[in-house]
Write a structure and sequence with these properties.
The structure is a single chain. The chain has 302 residues and is an alpha/beta fold. It has one domain (16-297): Rossmann fold (3-Layer(aba) Sandwich). The protein has helices at residues 3-14, 30-42, 55-58, 79-92, 107-111, 114-123, 170-175, 190-202, 216-219, 226-235, 261-265, 276-297; strands spanning 46-50, 71-73, 99-105, 128-133, 181-186, 207-212, 241-245, 249-254. It has an eight-stranded mixed β-sheet with strand order 2-1-3-4-6-5-7-8, with helices on both faces. Helix 2 crosses helix 8 and helix 4 (79-92) packs parallel to helix 6 (114-123). The protein is globular and about 60 Å long.
């Protein structure tokens, strides 16, 4: 084992566990894994704002919480606004040492909470905003969001009428706000994820982290393959792992293995209705996005 590998293992083993047992997540929940890794990186001097989402349930009913940090439950559309208010109050008290984290799902980020998020980014609020993305409104029954992939089944885009448009490119949209840091991450790569939270903690201004967090019930996969499915998303170039600095400099963090998109799609029940032509359309969208990202990173094409 190299010193670097040993350091990573030591960090993973000895980082403070600020997410306790007894949470209410489903088995194999990617959102629960994401929270554990994020808090291990940020440490206990953190305050979190959580809107309506799976995590408004996972933490437990009032007055209980499985998190060892202050937790503010807020309205669906107000994660960024609430975090901004917490940051302002702390600044008045001279507590600039506290990290303020907004933690929302894709529904509360891509859709309902985007107005507050865009406003916070435009103002340059000194917060970390994290979207754990399970690609639908999972907490309320697996309804379609603008993060739902092209062709995917949800209860509001059933098999006869699946989603007909691609997933919103939230990372590029946030980069256009010219905030200092935008990054994607995945629960399949915990060390990369944790290092990005540590980096975001040191940067002043609005930081946006987008974590892929598969949902076994919503994606119609077994609860023991969450990490495997998340890794396939990156290796098939469906969900690349990269950073954007100041809206202009793109850096690829993990090189995909270049597996076929079919291998990712066919493992999930939410895509079981797709025809060969449907999958070809998805492949075309994935390749177009990937080539654009490669160009932005100043690298050679695949």
């Amino acid at each position: 084992m190299t010193n670097s590998e040993k350091g990573k293992k030591d960090f993973f083993r000895t980082g403070a566990e600020l997410m306790g047992p007894g949470h209410l997540a489903c088995q194999g929940c990617g959102a629960a894994m994401a929270m554990r890794y994020a808090l291990k990186a940020l440490g206990g001097n953190t305050i979190i704002a959580v809107p309506a989402c799976c995590w408004s349930v996972i933490a437990g009913p009032f007055p209980y919480s499985n998190l060892e940090i202050p937790l503010f439950h807020c309205a669906f559309e107000t994660a960024a606004a609430t975090a901004s208010g917490i940051r302002a109050a702390l600044s008045v008290k001279g507590r600039d040492d506290v990290t303020v984290l907004a933690w929302a799902g894709d529904g509360g980020t891509f859709d309902i909470g985007f107005q507050a998020l865009s406003g916070a980014a435009e103002r340059g609020e000194d917060i970390i905003y994290c979207c754990y993305d399970n690609e639908a409104y999972m907490n309320t029954g697996i309804q379609r969001s603008s993060a739902t992939p092209l062709g995917a089944w949800t209860t509001t885009s059933p098999e006869d009428f699946p989603k007909e448009v691609p997933k919103k490119d939230i990372d590029r949209i946030m980069a256009e706000h010219r905030i200092p840091y935008v990054a994607t991450a995945s629960i399949a790569y915990p060390f990369d994820l944790m290092e990005k939270f540590k980096k975001a903690k040191k940067i002043r201004g609005t930081k946006f982290l987008h974590i892929l967090a598969p949902c076994p019930p919503g994606w119609r996969v077994a609860s023991d393959v969450t990490v495997e499915i998340a890794r396939l998303a990156t290796d098939s170039r469906v969900f690349p792992i990269f950073e954007i600095f100041n809206g202009t400099r793109y850096v690829m963090n993990i090189e995909p293995k270049g597996i076929q998109v079919e291998e990712y799609v066919r493992r999930q029940g939410r895509f079981s209705h797709l025809t060969t032509d449907d999958i070809e359309r998805i492949k075309g969208d994935v390749l177009w996005r990937w080539n654009r990202l490669v160009e932005d990173c100043g690298r050679s094409g695949p």
